[in-house]
Amino acid sequence: MEKILEVKELKTSFKTHIGDVKAVRGVTFHVNKGEALGIVGESGCGKSVTMMSIMKLLAENAKIDCKEILFNGEDISKYSEKQMEEIRGEKMGMIFQDPMTSLNPLYTIGEQLIEHYMKHKKASKKEAWEKGIEMLGLVGIPSPEKRMKQYPHEFSGGMRQRAMIAISLMCEPELLIADEPTTALDVTIQAQILDLMKSLKSKLNTAIILITHDLGVVADLCSRINVMYGGVIVETGSAEDIFYRGKHPYTWGLLKSVPDPMKKEKEKLIPIDGQPPDLLKPPVGCPFADRCDYTMKICMENLPPLFDLEDGHKSRCWLCHKNAPKVDRALNELEKVGGR
Ligand code: SF4
């Protein structure tokens, strides 16, 4: 499959008055053309910083270091701000959690829709306005002609998020990065927005990176999933690998905290005890060691590599080493949470 994005050995840290926060500590992954990749993990695990580093949208105290970031085969890691501006909005679209902070309250939805389109596509105002009406219709906003002339405060939360999606898709980007796009919405609207992203993906063949803390959100949309913890990818694989054959204790913890829609009776969800590691002084060993039920001596001393399992399924856990002593116990645990 052809890759639209390839990120190699990305490290991002933030300079603060108490030291450097190592938010992303060597992340390598790719996204194929037209596919949806989920990046899942608790807040502070480095998932949003990874994407903001790729887009070069971080504050001045950020330091990004990487081998390469290939977008359509071209290394964009060395691009100037001007070159990045040309890519952002046109070839890479973005949707954020809170549309109110991304939409400008002083401009109508129509004005915000046509701005980037006119700039990137060198289109006339009339052409851009027509395209805007078409996009609002495509994302399911009724009476798009009328809605074009309204301001963000005249839209409901779900409609604002739809408008944001329309804005980010105006130039028909090849890659759409959606950072917690449904977190601020109620469950029904959340399902509608995810359905919408799914249908747009198949209509426009847009590749999507969906960033979320909620494994349940990625289940329906994403064919592959990266699970992040403590600034590194701890497990990666197909959605089936992660949901049915997960091999990392952190993934099991995430699965236990997601309600199973197939279960009729009320399910007891189990949160993961403990706190994520302090990334000012990241542990030398496994970042999950303090919260893991299977911690061994080696876990405290050495960061596990991403062990290759099969067909692109990888897990950064010493239990996947061929000589791991506690693997049977771990597999029993997997059976307990598996079979969803
Ligand atoms: Fe747990 Fe060790 Fe695996 Fe880390 S490497 S998840 S501490 S068993």
Automatic annotation (TrEMBL):
Family (UniProt): Belongs to the ABC transporter superfamily.
GO biological process: peptide transport
Xref: NCBIfam families: oligo_HPY
Keyword line: ATP-binding, Cell membrane, Membrane, Nucleotide-binding, Transport
Molecular functions per Gene Ontology: ATP binding; ATP hydrolysis activity
Taxonomic lineage from the root: Bacteria, Bacillati, Bacillota, Clostridia, Eubacteriales
ABC transporter domain ranges (all copies): 5-255
Pfam families from the UniProt entry: ABC_tran, oligo_HPY
Principal place of residence: membrane
Bilayer topology: Peripheral membrane protein
Cell compartments where the protein resides: Cell membrane
GO cellular component: plasma membrane
The protein's name in its UniProt record: Oligopeptide/dipeptide ABC transporter, ATP-binding protein domain
Organism of origin: Clostridium thermobutyricum
The keyword Lyase is annotated on this UniProt entry: no
